[in-house]
TrEMBL record:
It comes from Celerinatantimonas yamalensis. InterPro entries: ArgJ-like_dom_sf, Peptidase_S58_DmpA. This is P1 family peptidase. CDD domains: DmpA. It holds the Pfam family Peptidase_S58. Belongs to the peptidase S58 family. Gene3D superfamilies: L-amino peptidase D-ALA esterase/amidase.
């Protein structure tokens, strides 16, 4: 068998599995019941989506639990894989190892308004913050959706922060919604994706949510296989994407881990990005964050006990990005730019190979 025949056979096998299961990728660990960050009890997600002409953007809220986080913060750790980013609240979180607000995601130019909206929301729970009490540390993370969205429209408002938080639920949409509306990934439509992994040895669940907006098509690997030469002819527009645009990775874990250990787990998300072909390009802001929802005090457990959580971080991140790519719907936006979806491309390739769903 020639190299080309071997590659064609591998592609055919991948497309066969896609048509049968509507999923791609091989797992080592077991997914949670819904394969979602909400498999970690108490975690909810809400979106506000703007989709009109040149404005293709939004806000996504990740709510760790129903408690007042300012009064009862959670242990957290973050890893900056590449720092081409404009987050707010990350410096103090890294210094103190605590999360004291919900996590908000949006586009780069909307960080300021979302920050103010989140402060106003938290003041409803802590009216003396910044006066008799310490100031609030809102966590707002962003990606640049400027290819599909006119960021200079400043379309995101403070009110949308409250609306996204109010909409937070254990069941939520993925793909081209909320902050993910205008995002691109590997030259395809990106956005919101999620996954979860259950670790039997610890009786623990690790849930992941990503805002995927990174990667160039020539680097994309699915099951370790480069597909750009087959994908490119299926696209309606040239890809026009470098590995620059960013990804935000948020992890929830129900084990009582320390901030140091959560930071180690967050860092392993980079291995999941690498499996997909990302090398954290020059202009990409790649940030991973992990928090613990455990009710008991967080503490250092024996590091040997977190081995499977490190594996779950890498695998969960990889599959959350794949979920974002496969759940996305096509979007046409700013200056007529558009992005095709991976699911549509795989269906076209399957039809070309005589396969049908």
């Amino acid at each position: 068998m020639t190299t080309e025949q071997w590659r064609s056979a591998r592609l055919h096998n991948l497309l066969e599995r896609w048509q049968c299961t509507r999923q791609i990728g091989c797992t080592q660990l077991v997914a949670g019941p819904t394969n979602s960050i909400s498999d970690v009890a108490g975690v909810r997600v809400g979106h506000v989506t703007l989709a009109e002409g040149d404005v293709q953007t939004g806000v996504t809220a990740i709510v760790p639990n129903a408690d007042n986080l300012f009064a009862s913060p959670l242990c957290a750790g973050a890893a900056v894989l590449n720092g081409f980013a404009k987050p707010m609240g990350l410096t103090q979180l890294d210094e103190l190892g605590i999360l004291q607000t919900p996590i908000m995601l949006t586009n780069t130019f909307s960080v300021g308004r979302v920050y103010t909206g989140l402060v106003r929301y938290m003041l409803e729970q802590a009216p003396e913050a910044g006066r008799e009490q310490a100031t609030i540390n809102p966590l707002v993370l962003e990606c640049n959706d400027g290819y599909l969205n006119d960021q200079q429209a400043f379309a995101v408002s403070e009110t949308m922060v409250h609306d996204a938080l109010a909409a937070a639920n254990t069941s939520f949409e993925r793909g081209s919604v909320g902050a993910g509306r205008g995002m691109s990934c590997f030259g395809l439509k990106g956005g919101i994706g999620t996954s979860s992994r259950y670790i039997h040895q610890l009786d623990a669940t690790l849930g992941v949510l990503v805002l995927a907006n990174f990667g160039r098509l020539s680097a994309l690997r699915l099951d370790g296989m480069a597909l750009s030469e087959w994908i490119e002819p299926c696209l309606t527009q040239p890809t026009a994407q470098r590995d620059a645009g960013s990804i935000i990775i948020v992890m929830a874990i129900d084990a009582p881990l320390s901030a140091r250990q959560l930071k180690r787990i967050a860092k392993r998300a980079g291995a999941g990005l690498g499996r997909l072909g990302s090398y954290w390009g020059h202009g990409s802001g790649d940030i991973a964050l992990a928090f613990s929802t455990a009710s008991q005090p967080c503490h250092d457990v024996d590091d040997s006990h977190i081995e499977e959580l490190l594996c779950a971080s890498a695998e969960g991140c990889e599959f959350a990005v794949l979920d974002a790519l496969l759940q996305a719907t096509p979007v046409q936006g700013f200056r007529g730019h558009s992005r095709s979806t991976l699911s549509d491309v795989l269906d076209k390739l399957a039809a070309q190979h005589g396969l049908s769903h």
